[in-house]
Design brief:
Helices cover about 65% and strands about 0% of the residues. The protein has 3 helices and no strands. Helix 1 packs across helix 3. The longest helix is centred in the middle third of the chain and has 26 residues.
């Protein structure tokens, strides 16, 4: 299911014609960027777990 964030990301990519540079549909670029963000978030969580630190929950407005 497409989230509001993913839909907005797709619109931004399209608004600035960034899909033209790689000749890749905007929805594929949005999916790729979202996957990159999720991978980074997982890496940060793994790092914090490795250090034995607990991450504080994000503020409500930052949650997707």
């Amino acid at each position: 299911m497409k989230t509001a964030f993913e839909a907005e990301l797709r619109l931004i990519i399209n608004r600035y014609s960034r899909e033209n540079v790689s000749n890749t549909p905007d929805y594929l670029l949005a999916e790729y960027l979202l996957a990159c963000l999720e991978a980074f978030e997982a890496a940060v969580q793994a790092r914090e777990k490795w250090y034995g630190r607990e991450m504080a929950p994000p503020p409500y407005h930052a949650r997707v």
